[in-house]
Design goal:
Layout lengths: L1 H19 L6 H27 L1 H6 L2 H29 L9 H30 L24 H17 L2 H30 L5
Pathway: Phospholipid metabolism; phosphatidylcholine biosynthesis; Lipid metabolism
Family: Belongs to the class VI-like SAM-binding methyltransferase superfamily. PEMT/PEM2 methyltransferase family.
Main location: endoplasmic reticulum
Length: 208
């Protein structure tokens, strides 16, 4: 009985520590969460506009060039997001419950796994496949099934989420866990829009 009470008390203290170590009013935390949400919203809107209007193709006079322009834009926004994530962690306090070797080792492992998933995904898809080439009418000949796509769906999103989680654990910042939660939720919502639309593109390659 005492053991159960002690465990409950320890869990409560850990939860309190995770929450109280977050400065919810800090500006870079809010900015980081903003870019976490903004980036996928941006690339989904721009990609669909391209699919329906071909505005980037018309501006650049070539679908591949238009896709490269979008790729540079998305990549740059990713750097901005990562910058504010780093700044948010730097300005947040450490969380006592995360200050241990297990968290640090797990953090390093998750970063490695996450980056492997992201980089191998990009290798398999190429720039065009990674950055919405199908919205430009540049379709892949067949579904990619090689690693990492043979072990999980959407490995780039999963890898990115794991990297955020790993960095947060390595630095012992529960504010990072909060941002990671938003990363996960935003990606899950984005996939509900992206996957059906991508299937539509491949079922009917021509614009409706």
């Amino acid at each position: 009985m005492n053991s159960s009470v002690e465990k409950c008390h320890m869990f409560h203290e850990s939860a309190v520590d995770l929450l109280t170590s977050i400065d919810f009013c800090e500006s870079t935390l809010k900015t980081s969460i903003f870019f976490v949400a903004f980036n996928p919203i941006f690339w989904n809107i721009i990609s669909r506009l391209e699919y329906y209007t071909h505005f980037l193709t018309k501006l650049t006079r070539n679908p591949r060039t238009g896709c490269y322009v979008l790729a540079v834009t998305i990549f740059s926004l990713g750097l901005v997001r990562n910058y504010f994530f780093e700044q948010a962690l730097y300005k947040q306090g450490v969380t006592g419950v995360l200050q241990n070797e297990v968290a640090k080792v797990l953090g390093v492992a998750l970063i490695i796994i996450g980056q492997v998933l992201v980089l191998t995904s990009m290798y398999q898809l190429g720039i065009i496949g990674t950055y919405c080439g199908d919205y430009f009418g540049i379709l892949m000949k067949e579904r990619v099934s090689a690693f990492p796509f043979n072990i999980c769906e959407n490995p780039m999103y999963r890898g990115s989420t794991l990297s955020f989680l790993g960095i947060s654990l390595l630095q012992g910042k529960s504010a990072g866990l909060l941002i990671t939660f938003f990363v996960h939720m935003v990606y899950e919502i984005a996939l509900k829009f992206e996957e059906p639309f991508t299937m539509k593109i491949y079922r009917n390659p021509k614009k409706d």
